[in-house]
C-alpha cells in the first residue's frame, strides 16, 4: 500500500484495504493509551487530594437557612473556602431547588462558552473532516458542542442529586495566586456536599466522560469509537480544570478591566 493511501485513510477514515486497515486508523493503541494515561493520572491525583483534604473540618458554603460567617483566620485550603457549621442541622437540598438550579444553568450565558470555543477550535483543526469547513461545518461543530454540554449538565445534575453533591460552584477566600489556583484545581476533583463536608466529585467525572461517550451517537465514522470517546472525556475534564481556575480569578479580572 502506498504511503499516500495510508495518509488518506487516516485523514478520511476510509479503509483502503478492508476492515483491518480502518481499525488501525481509528483505534490505534497510541490513542487509547494516551486517553487511559490522562484518566489514570487524574484519578491518582484525585485520590491523593481526597486523602489529604477529607480529614479537615470544611463544610459546604451552600446557604441553607442563613449564610454563616467565614472564618477570620483560615488554617487550610479547605477551611479557608467555607464556614464551619454543624452538619447535623443541615437538611439535604430539596429536589425542586436542584431542578431550579439545573434550569438556570441551561439558561446562563456560560452554557454557550464551551460549545462556541470548542467549535472554533475544532474548526481550526478541521476535525472531524467529514463535517467540512465554512459556515456549515462550524454550525455542525457548535451544534455538537451544545448537545454535549446539555447532556453533561443533565448527567451532573442527576448524579449530584443522588449522592448529595452541592451543585453550586464556589470561590475560595484565600489570598495569593498559587493558593487560589491550587484550591480551584483541588475542587475540580473534590466537591462539597449539600449537608457539609466533601467527597469525590463523582458528578463531574460522570458528566464529562458520560457526555463524551454519548457523543459517539452523532459523531461521524472514525470518531465514534471507544478511543475517541475516552480522548474527548479527558480533554473536556482538563478544560473543566481551566474553567474553575478562571472562575476563581474572574472577580479580579473584572476589576482590572473595569478600571482600565
Any descriptors?
260 residues; 2% strand; mainly alpha
Low-confidence stretches: 6-26, 44-88
Rg result:
21 Å
Outline: globular
DSSP helical segment count: 10
* Structural class determined from secondary elements: mainly alpha
Taking the sheet with the most strands, its summary is: 2 strands, antiparallel
Percent in helix: 55-70%
What is the average of the pLDDT values? 76
The oligomeric status of these chains comes to single chain
How many structural domains are formed by the residues? 1
What proportion of the residues form beta strands (DSSP E)? under 5%
> How far is the first residue's CA from the last residue's CA?
61 Å
Number of beta-strand segments: 2
For the biggest β-sheet, the strand order reads 1-2
SSE string, helix = H, strand = E? Answer: HHHHHHHHEEHH
What layout of secondary structure does this protein have?
Elements: H1 3-12, H2 19-26, H3 29-53, H4 77-81, H5 95-107, H6 113-125, H7 134-163, H8 177-189, E1 190-192, E2 198-200, H9 202-214, H10 226-259
Structure, described:
- The chain is mainly α and 260 residues long.
- The chain has one domain (3-57, 92-259).
- The chain is 63% helix and 2% strand.
- It has 10 helices and 2 strands.
- It has helices spanning 3-12, 19-26, 29-53, 77-81, 95-107, 113-125, 134-163, 177-189, 202-214, 226-259, and strands at 190-192, 198-200.
- It has a two-stranded antiparallel sheet with strand order 1-2.
- A hairpin with a 5-residue loop joins strand 1 (190-192) and strand 2.
- The chain is globular, with a radius of gyration of 21 Å.
- The model is unreliable at 6-26 and 44-88 (pLDDT under 50).
Amino acid at each position: 500500500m502506498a504511503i499516500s493511501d495510508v495518509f488518506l485513510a487516516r485523514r478520511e477514515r476510509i479503509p483502503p484495504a478492508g476492515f483491518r486497515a480502518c481499525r488501525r486508523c481509528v483505534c490505534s493503541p497510541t490513542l487509547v493509551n494516551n486517553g487511559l494515561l490522562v484518566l489514570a493520572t487524574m484519578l491518582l491525583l484525585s485520590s491523593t487530594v481526597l486523602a489529604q483534604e477529607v480529614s479537615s473540618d470544611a463544610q459546604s458554603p451552600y446557604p441553607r437557612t442563613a449564610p454563616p460567617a467565614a472564618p477570620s483566620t483560615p488554617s487550610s485550603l479547605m477551611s479557608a473556602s467555607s464556614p464551619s457549621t454543624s452538619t447535623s442541622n443541615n437538611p439535604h437540598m430539596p429536589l425542586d431547588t436542584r431542578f431550579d438550579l439545573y434550569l438556570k444553568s441551561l439558561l446562563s450565558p456560560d452554557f454557550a462558552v464551551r460549545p462556541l470555543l470548542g467549535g472554533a477550535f475544532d474548526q481550526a483543526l478541521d476535525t472531524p473532516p467529514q463535517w467540512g469547513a465554512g459556515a456549515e461545518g462550524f454550525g455542525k461543530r457548535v451544534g455538537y458542542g451544545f448537545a454535549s454540554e446539555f447532556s453533561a449538565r443533565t448527567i451532573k445534575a442527576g448524579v449530584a442529586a443522588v449522592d448529595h453533591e452541592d451543585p453550586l460552584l464556589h470561590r475560595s477566600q484565600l489570598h495569593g495566586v498559587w493558593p487560589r489556583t491550587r484550591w480551584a484545581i483541588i475542587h475540580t476533583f473534590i466537591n462539597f456536599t449539600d449537608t457539609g463536608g466533601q467527597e469525590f466529585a463523582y458528578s463531574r467525572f460522570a458528566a464529562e466522560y458520560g457526555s463524551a461517550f454519548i457523543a459517539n451517537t452523532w459523531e461521524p465514522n472514525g470518531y465514534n469509537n471507544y478511543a475517541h470517546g475516552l480522548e474527548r472525556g479527558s480533554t473536556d475534564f482538563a478544560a473543566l480544570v481551566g474553567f474553575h481556575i478562571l472562575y476563581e480569578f474572574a472577580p479580579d479580572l473584572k476589576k482590572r478591566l473595569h478600571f482600565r
